[in-house]
Design brief:
It contains 13 helices and no strands. The chain has about 300 residues and is mainly α. The longest helix has about 35 residues. The radius of gyration is 23 Å and the shape is elongated. It is found in: Cell membrane. It is a multi-pass membrane protein. This is ABC transporter permease.
């Protein structure tokens, strides 16, 4: 009897079967904003992967065309050293998206197990973990990231570390909240009565139920990390010139805003559209994965 009780929730939790996946996709594609976000994210990923191979060398200088406006030879214009802005924006997309995705991935790898353990062991582990989380949350996200980057030093690796540590509290809290709700469900109680160990219960029965929420949390965290990377690079605490990132390009454009405003327009538009795309994608995934959104 216990075996039948335990096996009931597994198809819904251990992984999405083809029918479930099709149902989620149907709900997702019915939302124009979600589809727009998916197209934007796919476009930026394609730009980051393919762009540097099909555009000019971002470090190549055209001394005959410094601060040239957009034209047939340079679609997005050139900077003060004659470097092609299209190539630099495309390469900057790779750097900025790499920082955003890797920082969220690292935060998930560390934060999900910590939140899982804290939510499951409420009496002993949870108070200690949540007090540490409260200490970190006392600092605003960007202030904490700036402090971490200033301590570690300017580099892409240190930017990823600073942004991931800054996002840890949110991921731990979300994971813990999901665990607190899921551990009270009947099939978890049945697993406990059947003699399943704590590790099996957490990773076999509790964690799969929180997967959809964690996917949405990761999708929403990426644009925050992209803005964080741009801010750190703008302040000189992130990627260093001559490596282009969207934040570095904005820094270089400051002194030419009157003479060549396109130097600031293109990286600013890229940051705005990428964050918009990931936010729309996250909202669409949340609605599509939430069974309560079915009418």
């Amino acid at each position: 009897m216990a075996d039948q009780t335990l096996s009931a929730p597994l198809p819904a939790l251990a992984g999405a079967p083809p029918g479930r996946a099709r149902q989620v996709w149907r709900r997702f594609r019915r939302r124009p904003a979600a589809m727009a976000g998916l197209i934007l994210v796919a476009g930026f990923l394609a730009l980051a992967v393919i762009g540097p191979f099909v555009t000019a060398d971002p470090a190549a200088q055209d001394y005959s065309a410094p601060l040239a406006p957009p034209s047939g030879g340079h679609l997005l214009g050139t900077d003060d050293l004659g470097r092609d802005m299209l190539a630099r924006v495309a390469y900057g997309a790779r750097v900025s998206l790499e920082a955003g995705v890797l920082s969220v991935l690292l935060a998930m790898v560390v934060g999900v197990p910590v939140g899982l353990v804290a939510g499951y062991y409420r009496r002993f582990v949870d108070p200690v973990v949540m007090r540490l989380v409260d200490v970190v949350l006392a600092f605003p996200f960007l202030i904490f990231a700036v402090g971490m980057a200033a301590i570690l030093g300017p580099s892409l690796r240190n930017v990823v570390i600073a942004l991931s540590v800054s996002q840890l509290p949110g991921i731990i809290r979300v994971t813990r909240g999901e665990v607190l709700a899921l551990r009270e469900l009947d099939y978890v109680a049945a697993a406990v009565a059947d003699g399943a160990g704590d590790g099996r219960i957490m990773f076999r029965y509790v964690l799969p139920g929180a997967t959809s929420t964690l996917i949405v949390q990761a999708t929403v965290g990426i644009p925050t990390a992209i803005i964080g990377e741009a801010t750190l690079s703008f302040l000189g605490l992130g990627v260093q010139p001559p490596t282009p990132s969207w934040g570095v390009l904005l820094t270089a454009a400051q002194q030419f805003l009157d003479q060549a405003p396109w130097l600031a327009i293109w990286p600013g538009v890229m940051i705005a559209l990428s964050t918009l795309g990931f936010n729309l994608l996250g909202d669409g995934l949340r609605d599509a994965l939430d069974p309560r959104s079915v009418r």
